[in-house]
Amino acid sequence: MFMDAQQLSYGADLSGLICGYLFENQQAGRPLQTNEVIDWLKTDTRKPEGAFLWLHFNLAHSATEKWLHDHTDSPEEFFESLHQGSRSTRIEHADQHLIAVINDVLHDFSFDPSEIATLWLNLNSRLMISARRKPLKSVDHLRNAVNRGEIFHSPAELLTHLLRDQADVLTGIVRDATTKIDDVEDHFLSERMGRKRANLGELRRLLVRLQRLLAPEPAALFRLLQKPPVWMAENDVHELRQSTEEFSVVLSDMASLQERIKLLQEEIAAHVGEQNNRSLFLLTIVTVLALPINIIAGLMGMNVGGIPLAQDEHGFWIVVAIVVSFTILAVLFVYRRGDKD
Fold it and tell me: Domain coordinates of the chain in residue numbers?
């Protein structure tokens, strides 16, 4: 019997447990309540071969860390990682445990760099603990897979599935970002940029932050694969290696997308610079063409004696002819300079 999808929520019980599953007898995960989890963890009888738990916690709940201290054998390195300032992705050994810090996007991700949060993992041969402070996409995909009845044989297999879900989420982000960049490029070609230039900067900051947080992950996984824990099966190591390769491809696509954004920004900047130069050139032409009339009008408008042609009945037309002549000379001068350039 599996949880009804309509009953899924992001809340937690008094212990901070969002959901718990028991995997045994090569069957799909069975949901457990907190009291059942405690009984399973405390039992001294021999547990079925291959049986293990997945417990998912909400760290925003004040009772979560105390519950984990009291009822699990999580190493101190795990609790220290919950409060470290560094959020770079990594996976490391701690006794017979694996401690993982994985960055993911929020459940309602909307291309905001602030909508990136962290998921902490602690796993051994019998237990996988995941904890987060905000709803995250990848772990929810894993949770939905368990509720659909997908069968998992080990905590390492859960970890592999989670990493693949994370790669799928990032692939979707890259795909959506590519669509946005295509839209910006179309507006650029049609010379209707508007706010699209600002969108490029936001996308680039988002991709840089994602890559900065996620880039260490392949290196950390490769180090793990070179010397895996003794309880990790060879098949799990192989699957983990494949997920690492998939993740590396996503990071490579992300780097290529950043380079495309950079080139597009440079092209837009060059186009804007060219438009500014053209506008400045037109302004210079207008200034030069208006120079003769401004100078003559200034001279003839001085309220002093001896203004030439002041008493001549044709004086106005003579001045107009002089202004037109100088204007024509200025136009010829400007156009000749333009042809030389």
Answer: 5-269
Closest by Cα among 287, 279, 258 to 181: 258
What are 243's two structure tokens?
């997920």
Positive or negative CA dihedral for 167, 169, 175, 181? negative
User: From CA 136, how far away is CA 58, in angstroms rounded?
Assistant: 11
Q: How far apart are CA 316 and CA 168, in angstroms?
A: 80
Bridge partners of 129, per DSSP, are 55, 122
C-beta of residue 178 within 8 angstroms of C-beta of residue 158: no
Q: Percentage of the chain with pLDDT > 70? A: 86
3-state helix, strand, coil in the chain (%, to 5): 55, 15, 30
Q: How many CB atoms lie within 10 A of CB 54?
A: 22
pLDDT digits (tens, 9 = 90+) for 228-282: 888 888 888 888 888 877 777 888 888 888 888 888 888 888 878 888 888 887 8
Measured distance CA(251)–CA(41) in Å, rounded: 38
Nearest alpha-carbon partner for 257 in 38, 117, 111, 98: 111
88 class by beta-carbon count within 10 Å (0-12 exposed, 13-18 middle, 19+ buried): middle
Q: Convert the pLDDT of each residue in 43-61 to its tens digit.
A: 756 677 788 999 999 998 8
DSSP bridge partners of 99: 92, 122
Tokens at 337, concatenated = 């300079």
H/E segment holding residue 178 = helix 155-189
CA–CA separation, 254 and 273 (whole Å):
28
130 pLDDT band, cuts 50/70/90, is very high
Domain 5-269 -> CATH class: alpha beta
pTM of the model: 0.71
Q: Tell me which residue of 23, 34, 14, 294 sits closest to 153, measured CA to CA.
A: 23
